[in-house]
Amino acid sequence: MNKRKIILDCDPGHDDAVAIILAAKNPNLELLGITVVAGNQTLENTQRNALHLVQHLDLNLPVYAGCGQPMVRDKVIAGDIHGETGLDGPVFEKLNREIEADHAVNYIIKTLMNSPEKITMVTTGPMTNLGMALRMEPKIVNKIQEIVFMGGSYANGNVTPAAEFNILADAEAAHVCISSGLPITMVGLDVTRKALCYPEIVERMRKVGNKASDLFTDLMAFFCKTQKEVYGWEGGPLHDPITIAYLIDPTVLTTKAMNVTIDTSSSQSYGRTNCDYFGYMKKEPNVNVGIDIDVEKFWDIVEDGLKLYD
Fold it and tell me: Quick one: DSSP state of residue 2?
């Protein structure tokens, strides 16, 4: 079976880190590169975090820095959840890995245009890099197999009552991606809030007993603490890795085809993913929206992914 080629565009971020862990060594995926955007923290921090992760896990993966601010709006970051560095908690060794010289948007365009096979774009942060790539070179739509993104919600947001962070951070870029006509799967808060990393889950993963599981444990110690402080969760929702779990085993998610638009004009609901769950508007569905998750299967995928490391 041919491996599914992916580019992971992220803003590490504790849950982004777990997405990288799952994607990098899965035998059915070929992670071509990691592109980084500002989101959970500034671009300076998120690119450093990505380098720390690939170095710590001894991954032979290039990391490209992309956009440090949204296409239109002012920059927002999620320091209350991910800390001052964006990856508070783990203590990493001195950084020796370096960022690639090419800009992430240029890398995305070149890689897609030069690939004989279609590539899946996975975004787990604001969609600025992919949105810019689609605007700079529209021909890449013919080279993308699917966009799988963590973001949005057909119910409640997590930054405002209407909006989820990744979409709020750059709603215009999300609009560009969502309206591209490409196959799209949305992994929103409706499913990610069901994958809560309770203490017993952390302990289960710790028992794997390798470098990846130790990192997971350190990541979750900080992440779950801030999630409880901000939202009252007893375990932090592990948003981003569900995109990779879906690619590993699509049956982990139940999806529903809906027409989805991005609110880019409202003062109160900017960044909302308007998902026509019941088909009221009689418009053609353009996104497969996650509406349920097999939580037990998801944690099995996470555990299996950790076990692939030495």
Answer: P
